[in-house]
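Retry 2 of 3 after timeout on previous attempt. Resubmitting C-alpha coordinates to design endpoint.
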Protein backbone atom coordinates (compact mmCIF):
# COMPACT_ATOMS: atom_id res chain seq x y z
CA UNK A 1 0.00 0.00 0.00
CA UNK A 2 1.19 3.54 -0.76
CA UNK A 3 2.75 5.49 2.10
CA UNK A 4 0.39 7.78 4.02
CA UNK A 5 1.90 11.12 4.99
CA UNK A 6 0.92 13.04 8.11
CA UNK A 7 1.30 16.23 6.07
CA UNK A 8 1.66 16.96 2.36
CA UNK A 9 2.65 20.54 1.55
CA UNK A 10 2.16 22.08 -1.89
CA UNK A 11 4.88 24.68 -2.53
CA UNK A 12 8.37 25.16 -1.10
CA UNK A 13 8.50 28.95 -0.68
CA UNK A 14 9.00 30.37 2.82
CA UNK A 15 5.50 29.24 3.78
CA UNK A 16 5.97 25.67 2.54
CA UNK A 17 9.60 24.86 3.26
CA UNK A 18 9.55 26.26 6.80
CA UNK A 19 6.34 24.34 7.54
CA UNK A 20 7.93 21.18 6.14
CA UNK A 21 11.04 21.46 8.32
CA UNK A 22 8.99 22.33 11.40
CA UNK A 23 6.61 19.42 10.77
CA UNK A 24 9.54 17.02 10.52
CA UNK A 25 11.02 18.44 13.73
CA UNK A 26 7.68 17.76 15.40
CA UNK A 27 7.95 14.12 14.36
CA UNK A 28 5.45 14.24 11.50
CA UNK A 29 5.95 12.30 8.27
CA UNK A 30 5.98 15.09 5.69
CA UNK A 31 6.28 15.52 1.92
CA UNK A 32 6.72 18.83 0.10
CA UNK A 33 5.65 19.06 -3.55
CA UNK A 34 7.31 21.72 -5.72
CA UNK A 35 6.82 22.40 -9.43
CA UNK A 36 9.69 24.89 -9.95
CA UNK A 37 12.49 23.49 -12.12
CA UNK A 38 15.96 24.89 -12.67
CA UNK A 39 17.66 25.15 -16.10
CA UNK A 40 18.53 21.45 -16.01
CA UNK A 41 14.98 20.42 -15.04
CA UNK A 42 15.93 19.65 -11.45
CA UNK A 43 13.59 20.62 -8.66
CA UNK A 44 14.26 24.15 -7.39
CA UNK A 45 13.21 24.81 -3.80
CA UNK A 46 12.66 28.18 -2.11
CA UNK A 47 9.78 29.71 -4.07
CA UNK A 48 9.51 33.37 -4.99
CA UNK A 49 11.39 34.58 -1.91
CA UNK A 50 14.65 32.77 -2.56
CA UNK A 51 14.58 32.60 -6.35
CA UNK A 52 13.07 35.83 -7.64
CA UNK A 53 12.02 37.86 -4.60
CA UNK A 54 13.43 38.85 -1.22
CA UNK A 55 16.92 37.42 -1.57
CA UNK A 56 17.97 38.32 -5.14
CA UNK A 57 16.42 41.79 -4.79
CA UNK A 58 18.36 42.40 -1.57
CA UNK A 59 21.56 41.15 -3.21
CA UNK A 60 21.15 43.75 -5.97
CA UNK A 61 20.08 46.44 -3.51
CA UNK A 62 23.22 45.84 -1.46
CA UNK A 63 25.54 45.79 -4.49
CA UNK A 64 24.02 48.93 -5.98
CA UNK A 65 24.08 50.73 -2.61
CA UNK A 66 27.79 49.99 -2.22
CA UNK A 67 28.39 51.38 -5.71
CA UNK A 68 26.36 54.52 -4.95
CA UNK A 69 28.24 54.96 -1.66
CA UNK A 70 31.60 54.85 -3.41
CA UNK A 71 30.45 57.19 -6.15
CA UNK A 72 28.48 59.70 -4.12
CA UNK A 73 29.10 59.52 -0.38
CA UNK A 74 32.71 58.77 0.41
CA UNK A 75 34.06 62.29 -0.17
CA UNK A 76 32.33 63.39 3.04
CA UNK A 77 34.61 60.90 4.85
CA UNK A 78 37.64 62.37 3.10
CA UNK A 79 37.96 59.38 0.79
CA UNK A 80 38.35 59.96 -2.90
CA UNK A 81 38.01 57.16 -5.40
CA UNK A 82 39.41 58.01 -8.79
CA UNK A 83 37.06 55.92 -10.86
CA UNK A 84 34.18 53.70 -9.83
CA UNK A 85 32.75 51.21 -12.26
CA UNK A 86 30.08 48.56 -11.96
CA UNK A 87 30.46 45.17 -13.60
CA UNK A 88 26.83 44.12 -14.09
CA UNK A 89 27.53 40.46 -15.03
CA UNK A 90 29.66 40.12 -11.88
CA UNK A 91 26.91 41.72 -9.80
CA UNK A 92 24.35 39.30 -11.24
CA UNK A 93 26.66 36.32 -10.76
CA UNK A 94 27.07 37.20 -7.07
CA UNK A 95 23.29 37.35 -6.70
CA UNK A 96 22.88 34.00 -8.48
CA UNK A 97 25.52 32.40 -6.26
CA UNK A 98 23.66 33.53 -3.12
CA UNK A 99 20.39 32.17 -4.50
CA UNK A 100 21.89 28.77 -5.27
CA UNK A 101 23.64 28.62 -1.92
CA UNK A 102 20.33 29.22 -0.12
CA UNK A 103 18.11 27.04 -2.30
CA UNK A 104 20.71 24.24 -2.06
CA UNK A 105 20.67 24.84 1.69
CA UNK A 106 16.96 24.04 1.84
CA UNK A 107 17.54 20.80 -0.05
CA UNK A 108 20.18 19.94 2.58
CA UNK A 109 17.82 20.83 5.44
CA UNK A 110 15.06 18.70 3.92
CA UNK A 111 17.44 15.76 3.77
CA UNK A 112 18.75 16.33 7.28
CA UNK A 113 15.23 16.56 8.75
CA UNK A 114 13.78 13.72 6.69
CA UNK A 115 11.37 15.78 4.57
CA UNK A 116 10.44 14.00 1.33
CA UNK A 117 10.75 16.44 -1.60
CA UNK A 118 8.59 15.54 -4.58
CA UNK A 119 9.02 17.26 -7.94
CA UNK A 120 5.76 18.05 -9.73
CA UNK A 121 2.57 20.08 -9.73
CA UNK A 122 0.21 19.35 -6.86
CA UNK A 123 -3.56 19.45 -6.85
CA UNK A 124 -5.78 18.87 -3.82
CA UNK A 125 -8.46 16.21 -4.29
CA UNK A 126 -11.39 15.40 -2.04
CA UNK A 127 -10.46 13.61 1.18
CA UNK A 128 -7.06 15.33 1.65
CA UNK A 129 -5.43 13.48 -1.22
CA UNK A 130 -2.90 15.23 -3.46
CA UNK A 131 -2.47 14.47 -7.13
CA UNK A 132 1.07 15.19 -8.34
CA UNK A 133 1.92 15.48 -12.02
CA UNK A 134 5.61 15.62 -12.88
CA UNK A 135 7.15 17.42 -15.87
CA UNK A 136 7.02 14.21 -17.94
CA UNK A 137 3.29 13.89 -17.33
CA UNK A 138 3.42 10.98 -14.85
CA UNK A 139 0.77 11.19 -12.17
CA UNK A 140 0.85 9.89 -8.61
CA UNK A 141 -1.67 10.27 -5.82
CA UNK A 142 -0.35 11.06 -2.33
CA UNK A 143 -2.45 9.99 0.63
CA UNK A 144 -2.28 12.50 3.47
CA UNK A 145 -3.85 13.09 6.86
CA UNK A 146 -3.39 16.83 6.34
CA UNK A 147 -2.64 19.05 3.37
CA UNK A 148 -1.10 22.51 3.46
CA UNK A 149 -1.42 24.68 0.36
CA UNK A 150 1.50 27.12 0.13
CA UNK A 151 1.35 27.93 -3.58
CA UNK A 152 2.31 31.60 -3.26
CA UNK A 153 1.72 34.41 -5.69
CA UNK A 154 2.69 35.74 -9.11
CA UNK A 155 3.12 39.28 -10.45
CA UNK A 156 -0.06 41.05 -11.55
CA UNK A 157 -0.07 41.94 -15.24
CA UNK A 158 -2.07 44.81 -16.68
CA UNK A 159 -3.57 45.00 -20.15
CA UNK A 160 -1.96 48.35 -21.09
CA UNK A 161 1.55 46.97 -20.48
CA UNK A 162 1.84 43.28 -21.50
CA UNK A 163 5.13 41.69 -20.43
CA UNK A 164 7.35 40.81 -23.42
CA UNK A 165 10.43 40.01 -21.28
CA UNK A 166 12.54 42.21 -23.51
CA UNK A 167 11.39 45.79 -23.16
CA UNK A 168 8.47 45.40 -20.80
CA UNK A 169 9.44 43.28 -17.82
CA UNK A 170 8.09 42.27 -14.43
CA UNK A 171 9.97 42.07 -11.12
CA UNK A 172 11.62 38.81 -12.22
CA UNK A 173 12.93 40.41 -15.43
CA UNK A 174 14.19 43.42 -13.45
CA UNK A 175 16.51 41.10 -11.51
CA UNK A 176 18.33 39.92 -14.63
CA UNK A 177 18.85 43.08 -16.70
CA UNK A 178 22.33 42.73 -18.20
CA UNK A 179 22.97 46.42 -18.70
CA UNK A 180 21.91 49.65 -17.06
CA UNK A 181 18.99 51.17 -19.00
CA UNK A 182 19.56 54.84 -19.79
CA UNK A 183 15.88 55.64 -19.12
CA UNK A 184 13.89 53.25 -17.00
CA UNK A 185 10.14 53.48 -16.48
CA UNK A 186 8.48 51.78 -13.51
CA UNK A 187 4.72 51.33 -13.29
CA UNK A 188 3.73 51.27 -9.62
CA UNK A 189 5.51 53.16 -6.84
CA UNK A 190 4.79 50.44 -4.27
CA UNK A 191 7.25 48.29 -2.34
CA UNK A 192 8.66 46.27 -5.24
CA UNK A 193 8.68 49.22 -7.69
CA UNK A 194 10.63 51.37 -5.23
CA UNK A 195 13.17 48.66 -4.46
CA UNK A 196 13.84 47.75 -8.09
CA UNK A 197 13.70 51.38 -9.24
CA UNK A 198 16.30 52.19 -6.56
CA UNK A 199 18.67 49.44 -7.75
CA UNK A 200 18.82 50.77 -11.30
CA UNK A 201 18.76 54.45 -10.26
CA UNK A 202 21.85 53.88 -8.13
CA UNK A 203 23.56 52.23 -11.08
CA UNK A 204 22.90 55.27 -13.24
CA UNK A 205 19.46 54.95 -14.87
CA UNK A 206 17.19 57.93 -15.11
CA UNK A 207 14.14 56.47 -13.36
CA UNK A 208 10.56 57.66 -13.79
CA UNK A 209 7.93 55.98 -11.60
CA UNK A 210 4.29 56.21 -12.66
CA UNK A 211 1.80 55.64 -9.85
CA UNK A 212 -1.95 55.70 -10.42
CA UNK A 213 -2.79 56.67 -6.83
CA UNK A 214 -2.64 60.29 -5.69
CA UNK A 215 -1.09 59.29 -2.36
CA UNK A 216 2.44 58.00 -1.98
CA UNK A 217 2.80 54.79 0.07
CA UNK A 218 -0.72 54.99 1.52
CA UNK A 219 -0.19 51.89 3.70
CA UNK A 220 2.69 53.60 5.52
CA UNK A 221 2.35 56.21 8.27
CA UNK A 222 1.63 59.52 6.56
CA UNK A 223 4.55 61.34 8.19
CA UNK A 224 7.00 58.62 7.18
CA UNK A 225 5.59 58.53 3.63
CA UNK A 226 6.10 62.30 3.33
CA UNK A 227 9.66 62.00 4.58
CA UNK A 228 10.25 59.15 2.11
CA UNK A 229 8.94 61.21 -0.83
CA UNK A 230 11.40 64.01 0.04
CA UNK A 231 14.36 61.64 0.35
CA UNK A 232 13.61 59.75 -2.86
CA UNK A 233 13.27 63.02 -4.76
CA UNK A 234 16.74 64.00 -3.52
CA UNK A 235 18.01 60.66 -4.85
CA UNK A 236 16.66 61.51 -8.27
CA UNK A 237 13.72 59.10 -8.36
CA UNK A 238 11.12 60.92 -10.44
CA UNK A 239 7.90 59.71 -8.80
CA UNK A 240 4.75 60.90 -10.57
CA UNK A 241 1.58 60.38 -8.55
CA UNK A 242 -1.90 60.31 -10.08
CA UNK A 243 -0.32 58.91 -13.25
CA UNK A 244 -2.29 55.98 -14.68
CA UNK A 245 -0.67 54.08 -17.53
CA UNK A 246 -3.21 53.45 -20.28
CA UNK A 247 -1.09 52.34 -23.25
CA UNK A 248 2.38 51.13 -24.19
CA UNK A 249 3.98 50.53 -27.56
CA UNK A 250 7.39 49.10 -28.34
CA UNK A 251 9.01 50.86 -31.30
CA UNK A 252 12.59 51.58 -32.40
CA UNK A 253 14.02 49.67 -29.43
CA UNK A 254 12.14 51.86 -26.95
CA UNK A 255 8.90 51.61 -25.01
CA UNK A 256 6.49 54.45 -25.51
CA UNK A 257 4.29 54.79 -22.44
CA UNK A 258 1.11 56.84 -22.41
CA UNK A 259 -0.39 57.79 -19.08
CA UNK A 260 -3.13 60.11 -17.92
CA UNK A 261 -2.61 62.63 -15.20
CA UNK A 262 -5.19 65.23 -14.11
CA UNK A 263 -7.25 64.39 -17.19
CA UNK A 264 -4.41 64.97 -19.66
CA UNK A 265 -2.49 62.37 -21.69
CA UNK A 266 1.31 62.32 -21.45
CA UNK A 267 3.89 60.23 -23.26
CA UNK A 268 7.35 59.07 -22.17
CA UNK A 269 10.01 57.01 -23.95
CA UNK A 270 11.96 54.43 -21.98
CA UNK A 271 14.65 51.85 -22.76
CA UNK A 272 13.00 49.40 -20.36
CA UNK A 273 9.74 49.40 -18.47
CA UNK A 274 9.23 47.49 -15.20
CA UNK A 275 5.64 46.60 -14.37
CA UNK A 276 5.38 46.44 -10.55
CA UNK A 277 1.67 46.78 -9.90
CA UNK A 278 1.35 44.14 -7.23
CA UNK A 279 1.02 40.38 -6.92
CA UNK A 280 -1.93 38.01 -7.02
CA UNK A 281 -2.45 34.61 -5.39
CA UNK A 282 -1.49 31.59 -7.49
CA UNK A 283 -4.73 29.78 -6.81
CA UNK A 284 -5.79 28.44 -10.20
CA UNK A 285 -5.82 24.65 -10.86
CA UNK A 286 -4.85 23.97 -7.26
CA UNK A 287 -7.81 21.89 -6.17
CA UNK A 288 -10.57 19.78 -7.70
CA UNK A 289 -14.09 21.24 -7.68
CA UNK A 290 -15.24 18.64 -5.13
CA UNK A 291 -12.28 19.20 -2.79
CA UNK A 292 -14.25 21.58 -0.57
CA UNK A 293 -11.58 24.32 -0.85
CA UNK A 294 -13.01 27.73 -1.81
CA UNK A 295 -11.68 31.08 -2.97
CA UNK A 296 -12.63 34.54 -1.75
CA UNK A 297 -13.76 37.25 -4.18
CA UNK A 298 -10.14 38.29 -4.87
CA UNK A 299 -8.94 34.78 -5.71
CA UNK A 300 -7.25 34.09 -2.36
CA UNK A 301 -7.91 30.67 -0.84
CA UNK A 302 -10.49 31.26 1.85
CA UNK A 303 -9.16 30.52 5.36
CA UNK A 304 -10.07 31.41 8.94
CA UNK A 305 -7.64 32.91 11.50
CA UNK A 306 -6.00 29.51 11.94
CA UNK A 307 -5.43 29.09 8.19
CA UNK A 308 -8.06 26.31 7.91
CA UNK A 309 -9.80 26.16 4.53
CA UNK A 310 -13.40 25.03 4.25
CA UNK A 311 -12.23 21.47 3.51
CA UNK A 312 -11.46 19.32 6.57
CA UNK A 313 -7.70 18.83 7.19
CA UNK A 314 -6.78 21.18 4.35
CA UNK A 315 -4.92 24.38 5.31
CA UNK A 316 -3.54 27.26 3.26
CA UNK A 317 -0.76 29.67 4.23
CA UNK A 318 1.37 32.51 2.85
CA UNK A 319 0.75 34.68 -0.21
CA UNK A 320 -2.07 32.43 -1.42
CA UNK A 321 -4.26 33.58 1.50
CA UNK A 322 -5.43 36.98 2.81
CA UNK A 323 -3.08 39.38 4.55
CA UNK A 324 0.32 40.89 3.90
CA UNK A 325 2.32 39.26 1.12
CA UNK A 326 5.49 38.91 3.14
CA UNK A 327 7.87 36.00 3.56
CA UNK A 328 7.91 36.08 7.37
CA UNK A 329 4.11 36.25 7.57
CA UNK A 330 4.07 33.21 5.26
CA UNK A 331 6.54 31.17 7.27
CA UNK A 332 4.96 31.98 10.65
CA UNK A 333 1.57 30.84 9.31
CA UNK A 334 3.21 27.60 8.16
CA UNK A 335 4.72 27.02 11.59
CA UNK A 336 1.41 27.77 13.32
CA UNK A 337 -0.45 25.26 11.15
CA UNK A 338 1.96 22.37 11.65
CA UNK A 339 2.10 23.05 15.38
CA UNK A 340 -1.69 22.87 15.50
CA UNK A 341 -1.61 19.64 13.47
CA UNK A 342 0.86 18.30 16.05
CA UNK A 343 -1.62 19.16 18.80
CA UNK A 344 -0.12 22.42 20.10
CA UNK A 345 -2.14 25.54 20.91
CA UNK A 346 -0.38 27.79 18.39
CA UNK A 347 -1.80 31.09 17.17
CA UNK A 348 -0.51 33.81 14.88
CA UNK A 349 -0.33 37.42 16.15
CA UNK A 350 -1.18 39.41 13.03
CA UNK A 351 -0.84 42.71 14.97
CA UNK A 352 2.89 42.30 15.29
CA UNK A 353 4.02 41.57 11.73
CA UNK A 354 6.65 44.08 10.62
CA UNK A 355 6.91 45.27 7.02
CA UNK A 356 9.93 46.76 5.35
CA UNK A 357 10.85 48.55 2.16
CA UNK A 358 14.54 48.02 1.47
CA UNK A 359 15.28 51.36 -0.11
CA UNK A 360 18.04 53.52 1.31
CA UNK A 361 17.21 54.58 3.86
CA UNK A 362 15.00 51.65 4.74
CA UNK A 363 11.37 52.12 5.68
CA UNK A 364 9.98 49.79 8.34
CA UNK A 365 6.77 49.62 10.26
CA UNK A 366 4.82 47.58 12.77
CA UNK A 367 1.34 48.12 14.16
CA UNK A 368 -1.08 50.88 13.38
CA UNK A 369 -0.40 54.15 11.56
CA UNK A 370 -1.48 57.55 12.82
CA UNK A 371 -4.10 57.82 10.05
CA UNK A 372 -5.56 54.39 10.94
CA UNK A 373 -5.85 55.34 14.61
CA UNK A 374 -7.51 58.64 13.69
CA UNK A 375 -9.99 56.81 11.45
CA UNK A 376 -10.75 54.31 14.25
CA UNK A 377 -11.21 57.15 16.77
CA UNK A 378 -8.51 55.78 19.07
CA UNK A 379 -6.78 58.34 21.32
CA UNK A 380 -3.01 58.12 20.95
CA UNK A 381 0.23 59.97 21.63
CA UNK A 382 3.30 60.08 19.39
CA UNK A 383 7.01 60.53 19.92
CA UNK A 384 9.29 61.38 17.02
CA UNK A 385 13.07 61.38 16.92
CA UNK A 386 15.07 62.45 13.86
CA UNK A 387 18.23 60.55 12.90
CA UNK A 388 19.80 63.98 12.32
CA UNK A 389 20.11 64.10 16.14
CA UNK A 390 21.62 60.59 16.41
CA UNK A 391 25.38 60.62 17.01
CA UNK A 392 25.74 57.16 15.45
CA UNK A 393 23.83 58.15 12.30
CA UNK A 394 25.87 61.33 11.93
CA UNK A 395 29.12 59.41 12.41
CA UNK A 396 28.04 57.15 9.56
CA UNK A 397 27.01 60.15 7.43
CA UNK A 398 23.62 58.46 7.15
CA UNK A 399 21.22 60.65 9.09
CA UNK A 400 18.11 61.06 6.91
CA UNK A 401 14.84 59.95 8.47
CA UNK A 402 12.88 59.60 11.70
CA UNK A 403 11.60 57.11 14.25
CA UNK A 404 7.96 57.63 15.17
CA UNK A 405 6.51 55.77 18.14
CA UNK A 406 2.77 55.67 18.73
CA UNK A 407 1.24 54.71 22.08
CA UNK A 408 -2.26 54.51 23.46
CA UNK A 409 -3.12 57.87 25.10
CA UNK A 410 -4.52 56.22 28.20
CA UNK A 411 -2.63 52.95 28.74
CA UNK A 412 0.68 53.97 27.09
CA UNK A 413 0.75 50.56 25.36
CA UNK A 414 2.73 50.75 22.10
CA UNK A 415 0.34 50.69 19.13
CA UNK A 416 2.82 51.17 16.32
CA UNK A 417 6.29 52.22 15.28
CA UNK A 418 7.21 53.71 11.93
CA UNK A 419 10.77 54.26 10.87
CA UNK A 420 12.53 55.66 7.87
CA UNK A 421 16.24 55.66 8.39
CA UNK A 422 19.46 53.63 8.45
CA UNK A 423 18.87 49.97 9.38
CA UNK A 424 15.16 50.65 9.95
CA UNK A 425 14.38 46.96 9.29
CA UNK A 426 16.50 45.85 12.23
CA UNK A 427 15.47 48.75 14.46
CA UNK A 428 11.75 48.10 14.08
CA UNK A 429 12.29 44.52 15.23
CA UNK A 430 13.09 45.84 18.73
CA UNK A 431 9.63 47.37 18.84
CA UNK A 432 8.04 44.20 17.42
CA UNK A 433 9.50 42.29 20.36
CA UNK A 434 8.35 44.97 22.80
CA UNK A 435 4.83 44.84 21.33
CA UNK A 436 4.77 41.03 21.54
CA UNK A 437 5.36 41.44 25.27
CA UNK A 438 2.63 44.09 25.53
CA UNK A 439 5.16 46.80 26.31
CA UNK A 440 4.30 50.42 27.05
CA UNK A 441 6.31 53.30 25.61
CA UNK A 442 7.57 53.86 29.14
CA UNK A 443 8.92 50.28 29.30
CA UNK A 444 11.10 51.07 26.29
CA UNK A 445 11.96 54.47 27.71
CA UNK A 446 13.19 52.79 30.92
CA UNK A 447 15.34 50.30 28.99
CA UNK A 448 19.10 50.88 28.75
CA UNK A 449 20.29 51.26 25.15
CA UNK A 450 23.97 51.04 24.21
CA UNK A 451 25.77 54.17 23.07
CA UNK A 452 26.40 55.15 20.38
CA UNK A 453 23.88 53.02 18.48
CA UNK A 454 21.14 53.64 15.95
CA UNK A 455 18.85 51.92 18.48
CA UNK A 456 19.11 55.00 20.66
CA UNK A 457 16.78 56.67 18.16
CA UNK A 458 14.12 54.09 19.11
CA UNK A 459 14.77 54.84 22.79
CA UNK A 460 14.50 58.59 22.22
CA UNK A 461 11.26 58.19 20.24
CA UNK A 462 9.83 56.18 23.17
CA UNK A 463 10.96 58.91 25.57
CA UNK A 464 9.46 61.57 23.28
CA UNK A 465 6.02 59.95 23.61
CA UNK A 466 5.84 61.55 27.04
CA UNK A 467 7.89 64.63 26.19
CA UNK A 468 10.99 63.14 27.85
CA UNK A 469 13.44 62.97 24.92
CA UNK A 470 16.94 64.15 25.82
CA UNK A 471 18.64 64.83 22.52
CA UNK A 472 15.87 66.75 20.81
CA UNK A 473 13.58 69.55 21.94
CA UNK A 474 10.32 68.07 23.25
CA UNK A 475 6.98 69.39 22.14
CA UNK A 476 5.65 71.82 24.74
CA UNK A 477 2.85 70.28 26.80
CA UNK A 478 -0.37 72.27 26.63
P1 LIG B 1 6.12 31.63 -2.82
O1 LIG B 1 7.41 32.08 -2.30
O2 LIG B 1 5.56 32.28 -4.02
O3 LIG B 1 6.26 30.06 -3.05
C1 LIG B 1 5.25 29.29 -3.59
C2 LIG B 1 5.87 28.05 -4.20
O4 LIG B 1 4.81 27.15 -4.54
C3 LIG B 1 6.63 28.31 -5.48
O5 LIG B 1 7.89 27.72 -5.40
C4 LIG B 1 5.77 27.65 -6.56
O6 LIG B 1 6.54 27.13 -7.65
C5 LIG B 1 5.11 26.54 -5.78
N1 LIG B 1 3.83 26.09 -6.36
C6 LIG B 1 2.77 26.86 -6.72
N2 LIG B 1 1.75 26.09 -7.17
C7 LIG B 1 2.19 24.81 -7.07
C8 LIG B 1 1.60 23.55 -7.37
N3 LIG B 1 0.35 23.44 -7.82
N4 LIG B 1 2.35 22.45 -7.17
C9 LIG B 1 3.63 22.52 -6.69
N5 LIG B 1 4.22 23.67 -6.38
C10 LIG B 1 3.51 24.81 -6.56
N6 LIG B 1 8.83 39.59 1.26
C11 LIG B 1 9.46 39.92 2.39
O7 LIG B 1 9.01 39.56 3.48
N7 LIG B 1 10.61 40.67 2.36
C12 LIG B 1 11.14 41.10 1.20
O8 LIG B 1 12.16 41.77 1.20
C13 LIG B 1 10.50 40.77 -0.01
N8 LIG B 1 11.01 41.17 -1.19
C14 LIG B 1 10.40 40.78 -2.34
C15 LIG B 1 10.96 41.19 -3.55
C16 LIG B 1 10.38 40.83 -4.74
C17 LIG B 1 10.99 41.28 -6.04
C18 LIG B 1 9.22 39.99 -4.73
C19 LIG B 1 8.60 39.55 -6.02
C20 LIG B 1 8.66 39.58 -3.54
C21 LIG B 1 9.24 39.98 -2.33
N9 LIG B 1 8.71 39.60 -1.10
C22 LIG B 1 9.33 39.98 0.06
C23 LIG B 1 7.48 38.79 -0.99
C24 LIG B 1 7.84 37.32 -0.71
O9 LIG B 1 8.67 36.84 -1.74
C25 LIG B 1 6.56 36.50 -0.61
O10 LIG B 1 5.72 37.06 0.37
C26 LIG B 1 6.88 35.06 -0.21
O11 LIG B 1 7.73 34.45 -1.16
C27 LIG B 1 5.59 34.27 -0.06
O12 LIG B 1 5.90 32.97 0.29
P2 LIG B 1 4.98 31.74 -0.12
O13 LIG B 1 5.70 30.54 0.38
O14 LIG B 1 3.61 31.99 0.30
O15 LIG B 1 4.97 31.74 -1.72
P1 LIG C 1 2.24 47.26 -4.57
O1 LIG C 1 0.91 46.57 -4.46
O2 LIG C 1 2.79 47.79 -3.27
O3 LIG C 1 3.26 46.41 -5.28
O4 LIG C 1 2.00 48.54 -5.50
C1 LIG C 1 1.52 48.48 -6.83
C2 LIG C 1 1.11 49.88 -7.25
O5 LIG C 1 0.87 49.94 -8.67
C3 LIG C 1 -0.17 50.36 -6.58
O6 LIG C 1 0.13 51.50 -5.82
C4 LIG C 1 -1.10 50.70 -7.76
O7 LIG C 1 -1.83 51.87 -7.52
C5 LIG C 1 -0.14 50.90 -8.92
N1 LIG C 1 -0.79 50.72 -10.25
C6 LIG C 1 -1.63 49.72 -10.62
N2 LIG C 1 -2.04 49.86 -11.94
C7 LIG C 1 -1.43 51.00 -12.42
C8 LIG C 1 -1.40 51.70 -13.69
N3 LIG C 1 -2.12 51.27 -14.75
N4 LIG C 1 -0.65 52.82 -13.79
C9 LIG C 1 0.08 53.26 -12.73
N5 LIG C 1 0.10 52.65 -11.52
C10 LIG C 1 -0.62 51.53 -11.34
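Retry 2 succeeded. Sequence:
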Amino acid sequence: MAEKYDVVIIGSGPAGYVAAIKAAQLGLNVACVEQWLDDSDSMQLGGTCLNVGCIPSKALLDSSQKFAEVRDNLTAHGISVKKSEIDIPAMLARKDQIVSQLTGGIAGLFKHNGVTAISGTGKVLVGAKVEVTDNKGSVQILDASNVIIAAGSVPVSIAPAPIDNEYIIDSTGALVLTEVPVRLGVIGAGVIGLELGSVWRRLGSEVVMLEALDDFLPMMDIQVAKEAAKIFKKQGLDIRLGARVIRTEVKNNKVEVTYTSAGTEHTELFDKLIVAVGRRPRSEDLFSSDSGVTLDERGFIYVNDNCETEAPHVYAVGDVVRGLMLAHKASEEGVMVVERIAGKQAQMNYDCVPSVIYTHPEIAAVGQTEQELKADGIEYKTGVFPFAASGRALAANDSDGIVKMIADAETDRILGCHIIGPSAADLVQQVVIAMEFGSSAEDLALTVFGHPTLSEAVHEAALAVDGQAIHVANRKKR
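Attempt log closed. The longest strand covers residues 139-149.
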